[in-house]
Design a protein that fits this description.
By secondary structure, the protein is of the alpha/beta class. It folds into two domains: 2-170 and 213-234, NAD(P)-binding Rossmann-like Domain (Rossmann fold, 3-Layer(aba) Sandwich); 172-209 and 238-274 and 288-306, UDP-galactose 4-epimerase, domain 1 (Alpha-Beta Complex). The chain is 40% helix and 17% strand. It is built from ten helices and 13 strands. α2 (57-63) packs parallel to α4. The radius of gyration is 19 Å and the shape is globular. The termini are far apart. The structure holds nicotinamide-adenine-dinucleotide. Nicotinamide-adenine-dinucleotide binds at residues 7, 9-13, 31-36, 51-53, 72-76, 91, 95, 114, 116, 118, 168, 170-171, 177, 180-182.
C-alpha cells in the first residue's frame, strides 16, 4: 500500500514507518520537524517538511497517489495545551480537519487516527477504562483528541471515509522524547545515565499503562486491514505505579541511588489503565514486550545515543 504518515519524524510515527517499510509498504512522511528529527526518518520513505495545516497537503496526497493516511502528527504536551489551548487547537483540531478534507477530496481508502486513551476518558470512574466509557477529557489536549475523533466520524458518515481510531496509553521506547505521555520513562533513564537522581512526584503512586512502541507499531500495521470504522484502546491493561516503574529501571540499569521526592503535580490524573479486550478480539492484536524487556531496549538505545 502507499501510506502517508503524518508526524513520521517523531517518536511513534517513525517506528510505525520503519515497520510499514519492512513489510513492503511505500511510505510518504509529512512532518514540520517542530519536535521530530530528520535522523528518525527512514531512508526509504519520501519526506516532505510541511505543516499539517498547509493546504498543499492536498497536492501531495494527489501527486503521491496515497491510499491510506496514518495520522500521528500532533502537539502532544498536556501542560503546553493548558498553557496555550489556542496553539493546541490550531495544530490538533484545525490540522486534523485540513488533513481530513484533503483525504476525502482525494478519495482516500482508509484514515487511521491516533488518539489518547490516557486523556479522552478523563479520570475514569472504574478501571480499566473501556472504549464504551464516558468520554470526558479534562485538558485541552484531550479535548482536541476527542474533537479529532468526532471529525473523523463525521467525514465517515458524510462522505463514506473508512477509518480506525487507536487510543494509545503511555507509549515508551526507542526515540522517545521526554515530554510525551510516557515521558517519565525517558526522563528516568536519561537521569540514571547522567548519574543524576530522578524526582518522583506525589509519593510515586500515580498509575499508568506503559506500552512498548514496537507493540504500538504492530497495532498500526494490523489496522491497515482490520477494525473498520471502530475505535480501540491500545495499551497493556497492566497498571504500574511510578515506584514500580523506577524499581524496574533500577534493576535494568544497575542504578543504586534513591530518587528525590517531589509534591503531587496539579492536574495529573491519579490512575489510568486501559481495557484492551476489544483490540485483542477484533484486531487479533496482543502486546508482546514486557515492561522489563521494553525498558532494557529503551536503555540500550539511550546509552548508544549518549556516546
Ligand atoms: N507518546 C505517547 O505516550 C502517546 C500517547 C497517546 C497518544 N499519542 C499520540 O501519538 C502521536 C505521536 O506522538 P509522539 O509521542 O510520537 O510525539 P512526537 O512529538 O515525537 O511526534 C509528533 C510529530 O508530529 C510533528 N508535528 C507536530 N506538529 C506538527 C504540525 N503542525 N505539522 C506537521 N508535523 C507536526 C512533530 O515534529 C513530531 O515529529 C500524537 O498524535 C500523540 O498525541 C502519544
Amino acid at each position: 500500500m502507499k501510506i502517508l504518515i503524518t508526524g513520521g519524524a517523531g517518536f511513534i510515527g517513525s517506528n510505525v514507518a520503519d515497520l510499514f517499510i519492512s513489510k513492503g509498504h511505500r511510505v510518504v512522511i509529512i512532518d514540520n520537524l517542530s519536535m521530530g528529527n530528520i535522523k528518525n526518518v527512514n531512508k526509504k520513505a519520501k519526506f516532505y517538511k510541511m505543516d499539517l495545516r498547509d493546504k498543499k497537503i492536498f497536492n501531495i496526497i494527489k501527486k503521491e497517489k496515497i491510499e491510506v493516511i496514518n495520522h500521528h502528527a500532533a502537539q502532544i504536551s498536556v501542560p503546553d495545551s493548558v498553557k496555550n489551548p489556542f496553539m493546541d487547537e490550531d495544530i490538533n483540531i484545525k490540522g486534523t480537519l485540513n488533513l481530513l478534507n484533503a483525504a476525502q477530496k482525494n478519495k482516500i481508502k482508509r484514515f487511521i487516527f491516533i488518539s489518547s486513551g490516557g486523556t479522552v476518558y478523563g479520570e475514569p470512574e472504574k478501571l480499566p477504562a473501556k472504549e464504551t466509557f464516558k468520554i470526558s477529557p479534562e485538558n485541552p489536549y484531550g479535548i482536541s483528541k476527542v474533537a479529532g475523533e468526532n471529525y473523523v466520524k463525521f467525514f465517515s458518515k458524510q462522505y463514506g471515509l473508512k477509518y480506525v481510531i487507536l487510543r494509545y496509553s503511555n507509549v515508551y521506547g526507542e526515540r522517545q522524547i521526554p515530554h510525551g505521555e510516557a515521558g517519565v520513562v525517558a526522563i528516568f533513564i536519561k537521569k540514571t545515565l547522567e548519574g543524576k537522581r530522578p524526582v518522583i512526584f506525589g509519593g510515586g503512586k500515580c498509575i499508568r499503562d506503559y506500552i512498548y512502541v514496537g507493540d504500538v507499531a504492530m497495532a498500526n500495521l494490523i489496522s491497515l486491514n482490520k477494525g473498520d470504522n471502530d475505535e480501540f484502546n491500545i495499551g497493556t491493561g497492566i497498571p504500574t505505579d511510578v515506584n514500580q516503574l523506577f524499581s524496574i529501571i533500577k534493576e535494568v540499569t544497575g542504578y543504586k541511588e534513591e530518587p528525590e521526592k517531589g509534591p503531587f503535580r496539579e492536574g495529573d490524573i491519579f490512575a489510568n489503565y486501559l481495557d484492551i479486550t476489544k483490540a485483542k478480539k477484533i484486531l487479533n492484536w496482543n502486546p508482546k514486550v514486557s515492561l522489563k524487556e521494553g525498558i532494557l531496549r529503551t536503555y540500550n538505545y539511550f546509552k548508544k545515543e549518549a556516546k
